[in-house]
Amino acid sequence: MSATATTAPAEDSAAPALPAAGSSFYTAMRLLPKERREAMYAVYAFCRAVDDVADDGGPRAVRQVELDRWRADIDALYAGRPAPRVRDLVEPVRRYDLKREDFQAVIDGMAMDAVEDIVAPDAETLDLYCDRVASAVGRLSVRIFGMPEADGIRLAWHQGRALQLTNILRDIDEDAERGRLYLPREKLAAIGLTDPTPMEAISHPRIGEVCLSVAREAEEHYQATWEIIRRSPRKATKAARLMAAAYHLYLKAVIARGWAMPRARVKPGKLALLAVVLRHGLI
């Protein structure tokens, strides 16, 4: 993607991106009533667009400029002057009281990837990253789902971290190829790694110890997620339940596979995913 501070790129007026059919997100959102589903698709399109800037937006300076344009567009949206590419967010923001700071947090999270490649962040930085790129999306989502405010925010906090840590464990090889390493510095230091390159870290014979420690943290967030879901209205948690159950399959799959190289890309079986849909999508 190319952009300047004064010239809008061609995709400003393009049709919003939709999640891939058959994905866990797509399936979960299909469970929602039409108005809530369309609101989630608008949020997804925003998140997808800024994520594309961070990952594939050209030179770093160009990415920064384009993310700044997105920040300005969100500010303009809340000032009543929506740019064409955020007009699909107007009604969701009004109807569900979506917060400007959550959209801006998502952009800030993407900027953490865009400004420089993240390599072995400390635990505090990793938690901030997870909050911005995942839990902030969760905060937008739970309002659309209709969750009670307090438990909705708690759910977003725990589920966002559970899902993002799962993504980190699932994608360590792909991230290393991009020059990124999201495993926390403190856990790497515990196995004797200080300032490793991503490839050095993921090739280390004791990297499984680090990954299993991160997996335990993810599991704790999943358990907290389910505690909140169990005490919440079932209608408002249907999509969250399906997402939590589906992503938990990925966590269990990477643990079962292990961490010895070469590592095969994991994907839960179709029957397991179908069982999740039947259990959480039909009731």
TrEMBL record:
<dbReference type="GO" id="GO:0004311">
    <property type="term" value="F:geranylgeranyl diphosphate synthase activity"/>
</dbReference>
<dbReference type="Pfam" id="PF00494">
    <property type="entry name" value="SQS_PSY"/>
</dbReference>
<dbReference type="InterPro" id="IPR019845">
    <property type="entry name" value="Squalene/phytoene_synthase_CS"/>
</dbReference>
<dbReference type="InterPro" id="IPR002060">
    <property type="entry name" value="Squ/phyt_synthse"/>
</dbReference>
<dbReference type="InterPro" id="IPR033904">
    <property type="entry name" value="Trans_IPPS_HH"/>
</dbReference>
<dbReference type="GO" id="GO:0016117">
    <property type="term" value="P:carotenoid biosynthetic process"/>
</dbReference>
<protein>
    <submittedName>
        <fullName>Phytoene synthase</fullName>
        <ecNumber>2.5.1.32</ecNumber>
        <ecNumber>2.5.1.103</ecNumber>
    </submittedName>
</protein>
<dbReference type="InterPro" id="IPR008949">
    <property type="entry name" value="Isoprenoid_synthase_dom_sf"/>
</dbReference>
<dbReference type="GO" id="GO:0051996">
    <property type="term" value="F:squalene synthase [NAD(P)H] activity"/>
</dbReference>
<keyword id="KW-0808">Transferase</keyword>
<dbReference type="InterPro" id="IPR017828">
    <property type="entry name" value="SQ_synth_HpnD-like"/>
</dbReference>
<dbReference type="InterPro" id="IPR044843">
    <property type="entry name" value="Trans_IPPS_bact-type"/>
</dbReference>
